Amino acid sequence: MGEQPIFSARAHVFQIDPATKRNWLPASKHAVTVSFFYDANRSVYRIISVGGTKAIINSTITPNMTFTKTSQKFGQWADSRANTVYGLGFATEQQLQQFSDQFKEVKEAARLAREKSQEKFELTNPALNIAAPQLSQDLSEDRHSPPLLTVNGPEDKLFRSKSADMEQLTSEKERIKKMLSEGSICEINLEAELFTLQDSNAKLVAALHEANTGVEEWKKQLAEYQEETGRLRDQVAELEAQSGRPGPSESETRDELTQTLEELEALLKAKDEEIHNLQSKNSDIPDLEKEREEAVQRLQDLETRNAELEQRVEKAEQTLASSLEERDRAESEVQRVIDVLDVKIYDLNDLRQSLAKLIDK
């Protein structure tokens, strides 16, 4: 079973400058994921962060480590194995507190894991377990005494090895304390805050640029809508002019048809009377038949003309209805465009107010 992540947070990663031991060097350009991992095979806890394809933090947590909060959003810890000091800048104070609490829990878990592994080692090595009290006493004495200069046997070698390890650990702690004391905490905090402010400033500049671009697009769209509105208004005016153009109205056409029909009826009546009179007088039948045929032909011509006039009336009615419908559609389109323009103008005013607030901030 491999390493498993147990906690993750986003933060800006820094490392102490190895040359000056005073200044922070950013290890990441942006906030990256910093995670706690647990290796069940080795009972080891580690803090790991990867930037791109490079591991910028690979720190094994030991019971001797301490995570220190140096400001509201910045914390640090020293790693003697990596011979460096790591710093983390968080976006909020709450994220820093969560990371600090997790660090304490993992540190305690590392301490318990070490004690458990030591107990297991002592149980599997009874001889060392028997001599443990004497070794502990000798080791405590070695902390306050110089290293042994003579070697008289295996026990002297074991004592000297343990004493050398303790001295090395003590000197490493002193070196780390000196390195931390040499650094100006105030300067470190200011640099971390400056980095955070620079990042925030870059975000604000990007947001302002995006807002300006949006305003230009809105202006362009508004000009297009205004142009479209003018064009539609011209079309409406043209349609109204066409619909108001003088021409034969429906009533005039009907009056003309009625008058024509009355004339035809009067003519037919007169011809019928004439034919009747001629028949009664037994006049020349062929002549009367000829006149009758001519009258019938004239009647057919008048009926044809009547049909043409009716078609003209019907076509005029269709044209008028189409013109009215097109005018209604144009008026609806104009109203829709006006409504859209009102919405866009409202959005533009809202965007201007947001920009003003953003600039005031």
From TrEMBL:
Residues 208-333 form a coiled coil. Keywords: Coiled coil, Cytoplasm, Synapse. It is found in: Cytoplasm; Postsynaptic density. One of its GO terms (molecular function) is G protein-coupled glutamate receptor binding. The keyword Coiled coil applies. Pfam families: WH1. Transmembrane segments: none annotated. One of its GO terms (cellular component) is postsynaptic density. Residues 1-110 form the WH1 domain. PROSITE patterns: WH1 (PS50229). GO terms for biological process: G protein-coupled glutamate receptor signaling pathway. CDD domains: EVH1_Homer_Vesl (cd01206). Belongs to the Homer family. This is WH1 domain-containing protein. The gene is homer3b.
